[in-house]
Specification:
single chain; mainly alpha; two-stranded antiparallel sheet; 2 strands
């Protein structure tokens, strides 16, 4: 999608990423001030979880916009290959616990 206007999903992902940026700054301050390692690890896990959610939102946006347009324009196979390449190293999207809309990938609704 080449529009200059962000979709609602992209805005949601952007807001989440900005929150993550602030959270990361806080974690950096924790490490610099020699905070307890376990507390730092908990905060890092929280950031990872938030990034995974942002990635799922971006996936949904891509499927609803760019991917569906490619399929409608006859470029579905290329879009599928591109998407598979993009998510193959993303366990949050492809692993056994991957969830889209609360249902694990591969499970029936």
């Amino acid at each position: 999608m080449m529009s200059t206007e962000l979709t609602a999903k992209k805005r949601a992902a952007l807001n989440r990423l900005k929150t993550v940026r602030g959270h990361l700054d806080g974690i950096i301050r924790m490490v610099e001030s020699d905070a307890y390692c376990v507390e730092v690890m908990k905060q890092i896990s929280a950031v990872q979880s938030s990034l995974e959610r942002a990635n799922r939102v971006m996936l949904h946006n891509h499927l609803e916009t760019c991917f569906s347009s490619a399929v409608l324009n006859g470029d579905g196979q290329a879009a599928i290959e591109e998407l598979i390449d993009a998510v193959k190293f993303t366990p949050a999207l492809t692993g056994p616990q991957a969830q889209l809309n609360g249902t694990a990938v591969g499970e029936s609704h």
